[in-house]
Fold this sequence. Notes:
By secondary structure, the chain is mostly beta strands.
Amino acid sequence: MLIPHLNQLNQRFGCxxxxxxxxxxxxxxxxxxxxxxxxxxxxxxxxxxxxYQPRGQEPVIWLSNNAKFAPGKSIRxxxxxxWPWFGPHAQDASKPGHGHARTVPWEVLETAxxxxxxxxxxxxxxxxxxxxxxxxxxxxxxxxxxxGSELRISLITHNAETQPIIISxxxxxxxxLSEIANVQVxxxxxxxxxxxxxxxxxxxxxxxxxxxxxxxxxxxNTTADCLxxxxxxxxxxxxxxxxxxxxxxxxxxxxxxxxxxxxxxxxYRRMLCVESANALQNSVEIAPGASHSLSVVYSLEALS
Length: 304
């Protein structure tokens, strides 16, 4: 991975110290955001938000203590960007699962300090001969991240082609929990889902979701807010999304977690992925010259 000149990045985009560019683990370029409302870290590989913590609160985003930071490898935790396809490639299994966006360099386009006190950064995926081998279409993709009392992320795809293109996508967000046994997910009641563990589809969620075993579900045709209620932290994480028709819920549980290596001991008990997505039959067609933006706001509410 090419390492940008950090001094130049700091001089151009540093926002008087609110944004700092540094090397993590001696070789891995990241962005540190620190303001009066929250702190966050972002990897330039993958445009990957790694951590987010509002002031005076427990972290909202979970990052594995055993996460690997290596060129061409996805980070375990944070908010991996799945683009331009979700899951395995439909025609070519040799292409990377969940697309290539999360494992290639992104460049900084702009940073800003907003009137609210939040900090904003915009990144764009860097096209190369390697990325063109995976995805030959002219579709510039950006991620806009706003770090404040709420966390806002927008994944923006522009179709610069003369023909429509079809993408699937997800913000594969890992949430930080007090303990998985303390958690239930609301907002998916009434939605049909594909259950990848059971190998079934067309099942309807009837109640709040409790996690007591491996779960890997794609909920379809749902635009509803999801609420992660955590009695241990006495809080609710609200996931409010726009232009997202699918929600994915994932936790590998014990056996798969042990085989993964980078989830960490007992890591499955402290995380849950609730992903805002357009997956399977909810893939998105983008007309020539048009743009599509999947956007999400993550906020905290107290549990009474």
